[in-house]
Design brief:
This protein has about 375 residues and is an alpha/beta fold. It has helices at about 1-15, 30-35, 50-55, 60-75, 85-100, 120-125, 135-140, 155-160, 165-170, 190-210, 220-235, 255-260, 270-275, 290-295, 305-310, 325-335, 340-355, 360-374; strands at about 25-30, 40, 80-85, 105, 130, 150, 180-185, 215-220, 245-250, 260-265, 280-285, 320. The strands form three sheets. A six-stranded parallel beta sheet has the order 9-8-7-10-11-12, sandwiched between helices. Helix 1 crosses helix 18 and helix 10 crosses helix 11. The model has no long low-confidence stretch (mean pLDDT about 90).
Length: about 375
Amino acid sequence: SGDTHAAMLVRAIRDSAPHVDFDFFGSAGSKLRNLGVEAVVNAEELAVVGVFEIARLLPMFVKTFQKLKTAAVKQLPDVVILVDFPEFNLKLAKTLKKKGFKIVYYISPQLWAWRKYRINVIRKYVELVISILPFEKEWYANHGVGHVEYVGNPLMQNVHVNSSKADFCRHHGLNETETIIALLPGSRHTEIVRILPVMLKAAAKLAADRADLQFLIAAANESNVADIEIAIKNARTAGVRLPSALKVIKGAAYDILNASDAAAVTSGTATLEAGIIGTPMVIVYKLSWLNYHLFKPLTSVEHIGLINLIAGKRLARELLQDEFTADSLKAELLRLLDKEVNFTMRADLKTVTDRLDGGDGAKLAAELILQVIG
């Protein structure tokens, strides 16, 4: 999602000042690279979750940090734009600010959720924080930080369904009249490894009870496809009787959600995307036992699902850690397939997402950044 938001911002900056020849460089995923952003490092290499996963890759992170710092000192950017990823970017902000660079933080780190003390770094080393969540500006103001601007959520403008349910089903050999369940296991390797096996077991249990179910697994890229295929192979080897109507589809998450009657969604930006599309969902997540017990005491919010945080209530059920089992996921998906429950959640999702500013968040962010540049 960081690569997606950053790509929208790059386009908006160029569109806001078409007479200027902009050069962008830094940590770039595939979408940024396709826009001609110079990849000092590939963002995909940084997509890990968990204390011990990060510790294992610490030499790589140190090398990445040095590469970005060296590139900044050599190329002297007019502004440094940090996108989410606070564990890495807050350290980079401190280092580059001391070298005289202007620092803008886009997609504010979720300090309100956990480790609030990091706000001191924002206060001291960041010129401007650009928020895409409506409650963040007030939260920062209440904690003594005034240089925060809410620009609306770019996803409201950029979550687009490319084909109707009928066309999508026809193209992928699906039966439009039968029930479709979407499985979104995340885009990180560690997420797919921990979360997809439980989803697959739940799908097997559901298919054993109902013959009318079709399952779609959303993959963001080729690397995801490879991880998903390994998980499917491992499930079959372990004797899990997977449904015959199970498909892996790459790069079409919005169309998958639009065509689905219900979805199991890994916590993250995808829960808001599913909410904007209006797909009834259950939110899931699982860390290693040790990571979970290290992180849990540091959290300070009632919900982890982004759509629930915006709603201010438990709109979608959250199955986390030990509560996330094949049986619990099966039960919640069956509940969501109930016509009355399904209809009510679709209406509630529309009410919540309608609260989000529908303006062009990326364009407003671009204009703010150009002001910082001067």
